[in-house]
Amino acid sequence: MNFIEIVKVDKNQLKLLQWATELYEIGLSISHNDYQKHGAYIVGNADLAGFSKPEQTVLADLIRSHRGSLVKAIEILQEKRRVKTKLLLMIISFRLSVIFNRNRKDFKAELKITNPSKHGFDLFIEENWLKNNQLTLYSVNEEIDQWKKIDFKIRLISS
């Protein structure tokens, strides 16, 4: 069973996630500190041709949530009444992709998500790759701890 099949992510959501991955560093043009907040503001308030206001809002929410305190990001989304399972799954996908893309090298490891549910999933990563990428492993473990705080369990399994 495929993770995407369970959550029934549609093509529009995947396109929004792809656009967010292209735009998430736009806030760096303002400041390195809290660049996710600056980027979210720019994307949420700019006149972006080709995007509806709701699409811009989702992009801004994804960009705002891609780093930093997950609890704080979720609180902000709850204030806007925008916390839905599909959005949370887009956020976890985005946050993990940013971690794995940190060094700007091709990700050359097998990564599988199994046993997905609304409450978590198992994340399989090759053991050798993890041994050779300790900083990324540290960041993945920190991310797992962030998600535990909102009762979403990610179990890291090396194979």
Number of helices: 8
Parts with pLDDT < 50 across at least 5 consecutive residues = 1-7
Determine the structural class based on helices, strands and strand pairing.
mainly alpha
Helical amount: 55-70%
- The sequence of SSEs as H and E is HHHHHHEEHHE
Strands, total number: 3
Radius of gyration of CA atoms, rounded to a whole number: 16 Å
Mean pLDDT: 85
Beta-strand proportion: 5-15%
Measured distance between first and last alpha carbons: 19 Å
Tell me the major beta sheet: 3 strands, mixed
Plain-language structure description:
The chain has helices at 3-7, 11-23, 35-45, 53-65, 70-79, 85-100, 127-132, 134-148, and strands at residues 111-117, 120-125, 153-158. Helix 2 (11-23) crosses helix 4 (53-65) and helix 2 (11-23) packs across helix 6 (85-100). It is mainly alpha-helical. It is globular. Mean pLDDT is 85; it is low at 1-7. The chain contains eight helices and three strands, in the order H-H-H-H-H-H-E-E-H-H-E.
Please specify the SSE layout and strand pairing.
Layout: H1 3-7, H2 11-23, H3 35-45, H4 53-65, H5 70-79, H6 85-100, E1 111-117, E2 120-125, H7 127-132, H8 134-148, E3 153-158
Parallel strand pairs: 2-3
Antiparallel strand pairs: 1-2
Helix pairs in contact: 2-4, 2-6, 3-4, 6-8
Q: What is the compact description of this entry?
A:
With 159 residues, this protein is mainly alpha-helical.
Labels describing this entry:
single chain; 159 residues; mainly alpha; 3-stranded mixed beta sheet; globular
